[in-house]
Amino acid sequence: MQELFAPGPLDEAAETGDLETFLAAIDSYRDTVIRLADQDFLAETLAGIQDQAHLLRRRILMTPGRMAESLAEHRRIIAALAEGDAESAEKLERHNMKTARMRLRRYRDFLV
Questions:
Q1: pTM of the predicted model as reported, rounded to 2 decimal places
Q2: Alpha helices in 3-85 (DSSP H)
């Protein structure tokens, strides 16, 4: 994950709006975290909602500036995981989810 989120291609994807490249990285991140959690029930539950979650991530990432914001958030989460700081990683993940919800509300309000 550190290599995937290292400065380089994902920065370019965020700058150019390359949603497919960015989504592939986010999906890889999520799949890795779920696999490493070694929680079969969690994995099965999330697999059941994967299509809906992917669609929501796509919509959220389409909002202006969200890819760069998300990239920075994921880099901080990955750094905490690499340091073995599970508490910080969890707090950072919750922050990522909170900012994503805020972006989803903006997207919804824009459409309505």
A1: 0.84
A2: 9-16, 19-37, 40-48, 50-61, 66-82
